[in-house]
């Protein structure tokens, strides 16, 4: 019999499916629930168990992980008669790995405490590739003791695992992460269009840029997307649009100016308005191409 905690996993999307499968590979007993039948079938094929509802998934779990798109979805699975707080046992640890507003995380932790359920906010960075390879960066908010208890589970999912402070801190750091990523992708996209219009060998240019101070994880991860114009979603524009809304709102609340971030947030919004919301966020290249009169 495994001594590892029993895990309920809610949300089996682009990130959630490979992450839950990595827990199965690490020896965890994982019961999952999501809305898509094929995602449940994928989990069972990997050795997990499918549940027909949130309530069924969480009932006997020691640890509950949520990985859903945004604050409304977190609230939908957490609250209500069929939700986590109503059906999880007292003493369970709820780890929300979604990217949501810090205020939502703080509110969830307070509501869960009344039910005897502990909470960590633990959003991640690294995209689909990082989820598959179990090399995610995990930024955590919550009590130290709960973080220490969850650390072995996090180590099956990522490589950089840091407690950033009390409830909501993980989400605040994730918002900053998304700001940096969006601005970095935008800069890379502008460089790609500039290089191509200048007649430079793009592949060679990106190789040498990647080896210098301009190099970044974003450039390394997204180089092939730019070269091949392959915008198969690893992280959708729709979700980055949501995240840019979170960071601009949070920055306004604390009085931090984001002049470059505000511009990039508008560029992300415009790309989404033009019908590209389902594409990978590297599709910011398309927005620069449109502005430059280049190919799209």
The H-and-E topology, N to C, reads as: EHEHEHEHHEHEEHEHEHHHHHH
Low-pLDDT residue spans: none
Spatial gap, N to C terminus: 56 Å
Instruction: Kindly state the percentage of residues in helix.
Output: 55-70%
- Given the helix and strand composition, which structural class is it? alpha/beta
Radius of gyration: 20 Å
Profile the largest sheet: 6 strands, parallel
- The total beta strand count reads 9
Strand order of the largest sheet: 3-2-1-4-5-6
Mean pLDDT: 96
Q: What is the strand content? A: 5-15%
The backbone outline, from C-alpha atoms, is globular
Number of separate helices = 14
Detailed description of the structure:
- By secondary structure, the chain is of the alpha/beta class.
- The protein has 14 helices and nine strands.
- A six-stranded parallel sheet has the order 3-2-1-4-5-6, with helices on both faces. Strands 7-8-9 form a three-stranded mixed sheet.
- Helix 8 links the parallel strand 8 (136-141) and strand 9.
- Helix 9 (169-197) crosses helix 12, helix 9 packs parallel to helix 14 and helix 12 (237-254) runs antiparallel to helix 13.
- The mean pLDDT is 96.
Summarize the structure in short.
The chain has 296 residues and is α/β, with parallel strands linked by helices.
Write the layout of secondary structure elements.
Elements: E1 7-10, H1 16-25, E2 30-33, H2 37-45, E3 49-50, H3 54-58, E4 63-66, H4 71-78, H5 84-87, E5 93-96, H6 102-114, E6 118-121, E7 124-125, H7 127-133, E8 136-141, H8 144-155, E9 158-165, H9 169-197, H10 202-210, H11 217-228, H12 237-254, H13 259-276, H14 284-292
Parallel strand pairs: 1-2, 1-4, 2-3, 4-5, 5-6, 8-9
Antiparallel strand pairs: 7-8
Helix pairs in contact: 9-11, 9-12, 9-13, 9-14, 10-11, 12-13
């Amino acid at each position: 019999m495994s001594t590892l905690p029993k895990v309920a996993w809610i949300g089996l999307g682009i990130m959630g499916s490979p992450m839950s499968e990595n827990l199965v590979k690490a020896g965890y007993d994982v019961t999952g629930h999501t809305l898509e039948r094929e995602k449940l079938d994928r989990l069972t094929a990997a050795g997990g168990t499918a549940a027909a509802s949130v309530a069924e998934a969480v009932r006997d779990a020691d640890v509950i992980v949520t990985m859903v798109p945004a604050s409304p979805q977190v609230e939908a699975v957490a609250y209500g008669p069929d939700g986590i707080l109503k059906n999880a046992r007292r003493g369970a640890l709820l780890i929300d790995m979604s990217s949501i507003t810090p205020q939502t995380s703080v509110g969830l932790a307070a509501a869960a405490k009344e039910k005897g359920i502990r909470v960590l906010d633990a959003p991640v960075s690294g995209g689909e590739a990082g989820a598959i390879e179990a090399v995610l960066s995990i930024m955590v908010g919550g009590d130290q003791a709960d973080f220490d208890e969850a650390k072995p589970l996090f180590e099956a999912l990522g490589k950089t695992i840091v407690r950033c402070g009390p409830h909501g801190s993980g989400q605040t750091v994730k918002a900053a992460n998304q700001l940096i990523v969006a601005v970095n992708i935008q800069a890379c996209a502008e460089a790609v269009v500039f290089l191509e219009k200048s007649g430079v060998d793009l592949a060679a240019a990106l190789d040498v840029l990647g080896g210098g101070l301009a190099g970044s994880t974003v450039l390394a991860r997204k180089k092939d997307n730019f070269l091949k114009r392959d915008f198969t979603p690893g992280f959708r524009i729709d979700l980055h649009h949501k995240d840019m809304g979170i960071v601009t709102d949070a920055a306004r609340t604390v009085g931090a100016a984001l002049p470059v971030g505000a511009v990039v947030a508008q560029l992300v919004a415009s790309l989404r308005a033009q019908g590209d919301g389902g594409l990978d966020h590297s599709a910011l290249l398309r927005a620069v191409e449109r502005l430059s009169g280049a190919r799209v």
